[in-house]
Amino acid sequence: MLPSMFFCTIACAAITIARASNILVFMPMPFKSHVRGFQPLFEELSRRGHNVTVVSSYPQNRQIANYTDIGPFISKNHERNVMEMVNMNFVTSALSVWEVGVKFSKILTHKAMVDFLQTNSVSFDLVIIETCCQEYTVALGHKFNAPVINLVPTMLWSSISKWIHVPSTFSYIPNVLLEITSDMSFTQRLKNTITGVLQLYIENYLYLPKMKEVMDTHFIYKGWESRPSLEDMLNNVSLTLVNSHHAVGVSRPYLPGVIDVGGMHIKESNSLSEDLQTFIESAEHGVIYFSFGSLINLNHLPKEKLNVFFGTIEKLKQKVILKWIPDGSIKLSQNVLTGSWFPQSDILAHPNVRLFITHGGLHSLEETVYYAKPVVAVPFFGDQHLNMKLVETKGYGKVVDYFEITEESFGNAIKEVLSDPTFKKNVEIQSRVYRDQPMKPLQRAVYWVEYVIRNGGAGHLKSDSVELNDMQYFLFDIVFILLILIVCIVWSCYLIVVRNASKLL
Ligand SMILES: *[C@@H]1O[C@H](CO)[C@@H](O)[C@H](O)[C@H]1NC(C)=O
Ligand SMILES: *[C@@H]1O[C@H](CO)[C@@H](O)[C@H](O)[C@H]1NC(C)=O
Ligand SMILES: *[C@@H]1O[C@H](CO)[C@@H](O)[C@H](O)[C@H]1NC(C)=O
Predict the structure, then answer these.
(1) Atom 9 in ligand 1: residue holding the nearest Cα
(2) How many CB atoms lie within 10 A of CB 48?
(3) In this structure, are residues 70 and 55 in contact, taking their beta carbons and an 8 Å threshold?
(4) Cα(370) to centroid of ligand 2, in Å?
């Protein structure tokens, strides 16, 4: 009895030690919501005993066990005014993604980054990266001889899905940069195809060489000369974790190595602070929560737009919680509570909160669907237009166009969503779909990350098609031969008919 117990203890200890891995998360780009969306995963991995090192522009302001932050690499006054992005059309927004990638690669010259990239003393068993606008990061998998996991901040799009051969059929899978749903008109399919072709092919000639240049300048380490091509390394990513779910996105085909983990940041709601609790519960007509997320600063909006927003919410009989600190010159009425930060998810969980006014960011929508609150949205850029188009199709919210917004249109949208019970009913349906999952998104993400570690990169999850070139994949060679065959048959038939006809004459 005793010896076997002793043996068991040793064996169990060995298993635990074998499971604890050194994990590198490398996402230095200044995209706050991308890092924050996956932050719960990094922390959960450290809680499970892995040694997690996170290289990002957004370090935590607290100590976490088994967790090391490296960064930031960008100072606050260098942050973008994202309002520059609202004027883009579907082609310029595709091009601007490339521009962002090139422009922000200067982060790699930051001293702390250079130090990190040049040390040879650390080793990692797994490398987690985000390839959006920073494809070169995949080289770290080669440097540390470790499998690579790619994090995708929104629904998959062609720039990312092409490497792992997930089909992105343009006829019904909307591109994240467009304002369309799966049900497309002819023009929409045309736009979707143009954007898709830009990302599938043109990008490889205009943008990828720049990423290679960045890689060959900054990712120099022992043995880098024998590194596979950037394309080969991107083809070789072990697992892709996507911030999406069909309740807030679309229904589309995947491969075994692509896992939806949207909503990892949603925790069971905590109780609210006393003043928030009082504010919400004393609202006779309910409360509206108003936040444009972490990226859009209301102070960057033109005065006349601000006046529309404030003019409208001040006249509402509902109370409003507004995530914004107005400057001294603006006085808002009694029904509006302002602050630089609020526990958004706990507020949305409160039954007396009736509506969420949002920019249509994915994390916000995931929370609002989870807590079944309908929305009114003013989308600005990126995937926000697509997200809101999907919300409208599913019938749990209304969109107000930023350029055409007036007190009347904004006010009417708010009144309609509050007074028509269909919006609430539809969001409750989505909420049920979203909650009914075999395991929570965070557990699922952890399971698959550890699966990749256990299975040494899990190469078997990859598509069997990654070895094929486009000619083979799309069967162009076969179609070509078949066409020749058909032409030959038709030509022979023609000759026979002509010969017989001339004999008859
Ligand atoms: C840190 O990792 C060790 C094992 O490496 C584990 O036993 C411990 O629980 C972890 N600490 C926390 C606070 O999660
Ligand atoms: C954990 O990671 C940090 C930062 O990369 C490193 O300094 C430390 O040595 C690692 N700890 C272990 C036990 O490997
Ligand atoms: C692909 O990944 C595996 C395991 O992660 C690694 O052993 C292999 O060298 C990689 N191949 C290429 C071409 O990057």
Answers:
(1) 49
(2) 16
(3) yes
(4) 37
DSSP string, 255-299: -TTEEE-TTTT--PPPPPPHHHHHHHHT-TT-EEEE--TTT--GG
- The DSSP letter of residue 87 is G
Q: Is the pTM of this model over 0.85?
A: yes
- Report the C-alpha gap between 33 and 300 in whole angstroms: 19
List pLDDT tens digits, range 51-75.
999 999 999 999 999 999 998 987 6
Model confidence at 270, in pLDDT bands (50, 70, 90)? confident
pLDDT tens for each residue of 304-324: 999 999 999 999 999 999 999
Q: How many CB atoms lie within 10 A of CB 307?
A: 13
Question: Could you identify the atom of ligand 1 that is nearest to the CA of residue 66?
Answer: 1
CA 376/CA 360 separation, integer angstroms: 9
Q: Kindly state the tokens that stand for 286.
A: 């309910």
Q: What is the DSSP letter of 137?
A: G
Assigned token pair, 16: 């635990």
Residues in the chain: 505
Cα–Cα dist 324/292, whole Å: 9
pLDDT at 17: 42
Ligand nearest to the CA of 23: 2
Nearest to 383 by CA among 403, 404, 363: 363
> Strands 397-399 and 375-377: what pairing?
parallel
Question: Six-digit token pair at 501?
Answer: 């006809």
Query: Ligand 3: which residues within 6 Å by Cβ?
Result: 147, 228, 232-233, 236, 238, 457
DSSP secondary structure letters along 223-241: TGGGPPPHHHHHHT--EEE
Q: Measure the CA–CA gap between 336 and 325, rounded to whole angstroms.
A: 12
**Residue 158, both tokens:** 């062609």
Q: C-alpha distances in angstroms, 212 versus 136, 181, 219?
A: 7, 34, 10
DSSP assignment letter at 86 = G
Q: Residue 52 pairs with which residues in a beta bridge?
A: 23, 67
Query: pLDDT confidence of 82, banded at 50, 70, 90?
Result: low
Q: Which of 409, 287, 286, 309 is nearest to 359 (CA)?
A: 309
Which DSSP category does 327 fall into? -
| Opening angle at CA 60, ends 55 and 327, nearest 5 | 120
